[in-house]
Amino acid sequence: MTMAPTKYLHIDRISKTFTNGSKVTEVLQDIRLTIDKGEFVSIIGHSGCGKSTLLNLIAGLTDVTTGALKLEGREVNAPGPERAVVFQNHSLLPWLTVYDNVKLAVSKVFSGTKTRAERHDWIMQNLDLVQMIHAADKRPGEISGGMRQRVGIARALSMEPKVLLLDEPFGALDALTRAHLQDAVMDIHARLGNTMIMITHDVDEAVLLADRIVMMTNGPAATIGEVLEVAIPRPRDRIALASHPDYVRAREAVLRFLYERHRFVEAAE
Amino acid sequence: MSVVVLKKTPAPAKHPPAQVVPLPVAAKSGQWAQKSLAWIVSSVLPPLVVLFVLLAIWQIAFSGPDAGLPTPTKVWAESSELILDPFFVYGSQDIGLGWRVLTSLERVAYGFGLAAVAGVLMGAVIGQSALMMRGFDPIFQVLRTVPPLAWLPISLAAFMDSRPSAIFVIFITAIWPIIINTAAGVRAIPQDYRNVAAVLRLNQIEFFWKIMVPSAAPYIFSGLRIGVGLSWLAIVAAEMLTGGVGIGFFIWDAWNSSRLTDIIVALIYIGVTGFVLDRLVGWIGSVVSRGTAS
Ligand SMILES: Nc1ncnc2c1ncn2[C@@H]1O[C@H](COP(=O)(O)OP(=O)(O)O)[C@@H](O)[C@H]1O
Ligand SMILES: [Mg+2]
């Protein structure tokens, strides 16, 4: 694969402080990260350290306090479909069918550029990508949690985002379903070559999926503690990988970071 | 819009064990007959029995020679025509109670329709901001308790004309619970849905129709349901102003000419109509918001 231009997504000395009345919480501090086009980055860190906050900053759902965020050289300061988000709890609209949930996104994003028929094909293509065509007419309440996450991914992909942001998308799923969906995400990444940023608290997931693992220190005022390159060639196979020396080494490095150097201490607020 | 087929599995609570047929040999049609019989016995019979007992007590209580109110048999004797033929027309002022109810319903449709549109829009705006909510909510909570009759003089003073005043009385009586409930529903829209809307860059109008209305539908419809009840309650007050042929004015007129039995029949018409309106809005609400609860 040819190397894309660097500084595709540039996170430049970002900090985030929440002010709630007189209560001021500095959540993130001095975050610097540059992500290449087509790269898969995992962000890992203990619960409450500010991973979702960082993702929301990239999505534009939250404003940065200081610093700047640039995608393709252009400043990010509002949410938009070119930075689609797969939310932790799927957040599908329960009154719409699976098809109509994806359609909501497609109609909005491609209203001027695709005809009706093309939009329909595009919706079906994205549902097919996550193998959810069979449930197109079901409502979110009628399908399993894993299926809902698939639809959430299809909805995000259907926006043809420059960067796909995933906030612990499989956190609430059982191990088998999670493995299936990880394979699906790897497959999609291989086929479409999207830039993906995925938050996780699962070390295996991070190592399996990512080109780089961004490890965050504990809050308050969390920052990036270490960035680990995972140079395992793709396609990656979870079974073959289990004993792969690079995999074992990467896994150990992350575990050491999380449990030796930045042990999770229950915040004594 | 595609038509959605709901495949809800029936709730087990619909088949309480008490309805299980004790005879294992019973044929299918026999079971069906027994079930509908059980339904009649459990749901239709009790209100009928209570009604009969109440009528009997009423009959006995007002049978004396100087009783203030007519007995049920007297109502029947003097006003049975009103009950039996709701749609007679003997003259422009002498028409069946069915026609009168329809006239009143038209008036309520204007007042309530306006209240529904204005209430939902105002609720949507106010619910968007916690500050506005804090500012407006106590005021609405006070205004909501003002009875319809109390709005009459204010309404007349403001409009100087009886027709818009009557509709305004209905409007102003019905609007508060619609605003309050819509605003509460908008406040309760999950942040997730707002995030989805933000990522998709939905504009205000798209957000209103695609996120706000469906998400807040259960709240909005419970407001509309209270509102339709209140606007029907206001009909007598409103028609005291307008005169004419409405059911509300009929009561006012019958009172002025001491036709007590007619008033009693009209009360029954009003009650049944109000009940139907309430159920109708409730039913529309449950159809519209069936997806939101899951
Ligand atoms: N809107 C907010 N206002 C105040 N504090 C917040 C807000 N959002 C998040 N925080 C705080 O920021 C910290 C990080 O939260 P979050 O990013 O959700 O962590 P993570 O996703 O890593 O578990 C938490 O301590 C949380 O209480
Ligand atoms: Mg989080």
Concise overview:
The complex is a heterodimer of chains A (269) and B (294). Chain A has helices spanning 51-59, 98-109, 116-129, 145-158, 175-192, 203-209, 238-241, 245-261, and strands spanning 9-20, 23-35, 40-44, 66-71, 74-75, 83-86, 163-167, 195-200, 212-216, 224-229.
Structure in words:
With 269 residues, chain A is α/β, with parallel strands linked by helices. Helix content of chain A is 35%, strand content 24%. Chain A has a domain of 151 residues: P-loop containing nucleotide triphosphate hydrolases (Rossmann fold). Chain B has a domain of 189 residues: MetI-like fold (Orthogonal Bundle). Chain B is built from 11 helices and no strands. Classes of the chains: A alpha/beta (269), B mainly alpha (294). The site of magnesium ion has 3 residues of chain A, from helix 1. Chain B: Keywords: Cell inner membrane, Cell membrane, Ion transport, Membrane, Transmembrane, Transmembrane helix, Transport. Chain B: It is a multi-pass membrane protein.
From the 3D structure, determine the CATH topology of one domain in chain A: Rossmann fold
Going by CATH, the homologous superfamily of one domain in chain B would be MetI-like
How are strands sequenced across the largest beta sheet of chain A? 6-7-8-3-9-10
Structural class by SSE content of chain A: alpha/beta
User: In this structure, how is the largest beta sheet of chain A organized?
Assistant: 6 strands, mixed
- State which percent range the strand residues of chain A make up: 15-25%
CATH superfamily of one domain in chain A: P-loop containing nucleotide triphosphate hydrolases
Give the largest chain-chain interface (CB within 8 Å). A-B, 29 and 27 residues
CATH class of one domain in chain B: Mainly Alpha
Largest sheet data of chain B:
none
Structural class call of chain B reads mainly alpha
Distance between the termini of chain B: 20 Å
Instruction: State the name of the first-level CATH class of one domain in chain A.
Output: Alpha Beta
Mean pLDDT of chain B: 86
What are the low-pLDDT stretches of chain B, counting only 5+ consecutive residues below 50? 1-17
C-alpha Rg of chain B, in Å?
24 Å
**General shape of chain A:** globular
Give the topology string of chain A: H per helix, E per strand: EEEHEEEHHHEHEHEEHH
Helix content of chain B: over 70%
At CATH's second level, what is the architecture of one domain in chain A? 3-Layer(aba) Sandwich
